[in-house]
């Protein structure tokens, strides 16, 4: 980077600070928003770690740098970062860029407040409650509680903690010695945060009873019933069932009505991890996939995924109206939650969470919803389903593409069978050789920067691609490109 005058502190120099920020915002608009969303640009510019360290010059030194150097640092960070807003980024359950949500994120970061008391976050305390109320209404609840969490994993962990506290409130003070051996139940397709949460909360991963799923990845209610009886016979106390609406790999929706029946019979808390599939509730056409969700006690829902609200935007919704969140997590810190304030102290929501400082995650969703309206967001969800269906039909027309199963969501799972393996399904090493195809193609696409899509093994199935159709800017041309690019990258295999 070019040497120039070091950047003196901008403290107390609002003109220089504003000039710097205008330049940075200009770089962001040009390099992230304009180029990062252009199909003619690369998704990523791959570098090996050692080379990338040198290019970024990561070392922190005692002397400051010039404004020109700082701007060049911003350009370098953007250049070598993956463009998750790119139309050919299909790698995760989040992608794309909503300008109104981004505007909300910029305002949020600029205001730099913490969502714990009305006195320092009056707008956002009221806004968060309004957004959560809207999400609860879509679940089917006219009342309840909730909070935005730092990711769906934390939402799921909170649900485990709340279910345990509701059953054994003594555990908040007395800890694990107040508890009998507990059992919670989830399907083998659940998100890994359920087991992580059990470990983190001191229950241990052995307390998680894994319920069988059918060939489409849905929890089998009959096996749930069997597992509950088995746990009781072994001396454990069942307390929670976690169902999934939109599993991570296959995009499966558990049968919530039947699972709720089991929970009702046994008096168990029902949590629905709808981090991925919750946004389908906005669609009149597809919300039947979550039939029965209104019978849950808690729901995790990540609008940063299918709705493109931007990371992070993860809601935990509760049917409870007894202030369970605050009773479970609160510690009444007297320097924050004084009870003799000049306003209604019920507006201080900070004791609902385990965190102290909590970032504002409601504005980006609220602003996007204001701009798009519920109808616009519904169209976004329906369009994703329609494009996924288009991709499936096009995939079936081409030689060398084999569906893992017909999708019911926007996860399209398939194998790419290269020319050398076509017609050889009967050979003894076919599965082993096929499993090696996806990693090779992934390396090629990433190093070329042409696109990114995830792959994984699953049960007895060897590596296959999981294409996620979520970016609202996607078109049929992007689906065609995706298939053409896989054929190009794999033509010599």
Automatic annotation (TrEMBL):
The keyword Lyase applies. SUPFAM superfamilies: PLP-dependent transferases (SSF53383). The modification N6-(pyridoxal phosphate)lysine is found at residue 305. One of its GO terms (molecular function) is pyridoxal phosphate binding. It comes from the Eukaryota. Homodimer. This is Cysteine sulfinic acid decarboxylase. The gene is CSAD.
């Amino acid at each position: 980077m070019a040497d120039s005058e070091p950047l003196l502190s901008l403290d107390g120099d609002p003109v220089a600070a504003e000039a710097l920020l205008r330049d940075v915002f200009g770089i962001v608009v040009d390099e992230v928003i304009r180029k990062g969303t252009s199909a003619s640009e690369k998704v990523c510019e791959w570098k090996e770690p050692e080379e990338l360290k040198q290019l970024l010059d990561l070392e922190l030194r005692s002397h400051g740098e010039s404004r020109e150097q700082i701007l060049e640092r911003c350009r370098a960070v953007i250049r070598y970062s993956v463009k998750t807003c790119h139309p050919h980024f299909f790698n995760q359950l989040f992608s794309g860029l909503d300008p109104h949500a981004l505007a909300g994120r910029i305002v949020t970061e600029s205001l730099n407040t913490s969502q714990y008391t009305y006195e320092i976050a009056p707008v956002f305390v009221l806004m968060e409650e309004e957004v959560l109320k809207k999400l609860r209404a879509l679940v089917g609840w006219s009342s309840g509680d909730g909070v935005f969490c730092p990711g769906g994993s934390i939402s799921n962990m909170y649900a485990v903690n709340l279910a345990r506290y509701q059953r054994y409130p003594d555990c908040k003070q007395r800890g694990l010695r107040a508890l009998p051996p507990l059992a919670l139940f989830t399907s083998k397709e659940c998100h890994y945060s359920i087991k992580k949460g059990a470990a983190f909360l001191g229950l241990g991963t052995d307390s998680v009873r894994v319920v069988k799923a059918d060939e489409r990845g849905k929890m089998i209610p009959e096996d749930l019933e069997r597992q509950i009886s088995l746990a009781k016979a072994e001396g454990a106390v069942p307390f929670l069932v976690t169902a999934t609406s939109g599993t991570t790999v296959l995009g499966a929706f558990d049968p919530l009505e039947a699972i709720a029946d089991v929970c009702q019979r046994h008096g168990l808390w029902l949590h629905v991890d709808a981090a991925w599939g919750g946004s389908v509730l906005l669609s009149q056409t597809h919300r039947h996939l979550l039939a029965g969700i209104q019978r849950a006690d808690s729901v995790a829902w990540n609008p940063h995924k299918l709705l493109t609200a931007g990371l992070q935007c993860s809601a935990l919704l509760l049917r409870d109206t007894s202030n369970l969140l605050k009773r479970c997590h609160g510690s009444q810190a007297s320097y924050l939650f004084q009870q003799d304030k000049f306003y209604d102290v019920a507006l201080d929501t900070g004791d609902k969470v385990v965190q102290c400082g909590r970032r504002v995650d409601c504005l980006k969703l609220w602003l996007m919803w204001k701009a798009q309206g519920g109808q616009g967001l519904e169209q976004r969800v329906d369009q994703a389903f329609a494009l996924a269906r288009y991709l499936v039909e096009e995939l079936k027309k081409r030689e060398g593409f084999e569906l893992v199963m017909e999708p019911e969501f926007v996860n399209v799972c398939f194998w790419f069978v290269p020319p050398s393996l076509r017609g050889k399904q009967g050979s003894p090493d076919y599965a082993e050789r096929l499993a090696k195809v996806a990693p090779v193609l992934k390396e090629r696409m990433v190093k070329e920067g042409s696109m990114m899509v995830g792959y994984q093994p699953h049960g007895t199935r060897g590596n296959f691609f999981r294409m996620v159709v979520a970016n609202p800017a996607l078109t049929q041309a992007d689906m065609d490109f995706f298939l053409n690019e896989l054929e190009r990258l794999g033509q010599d295999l």
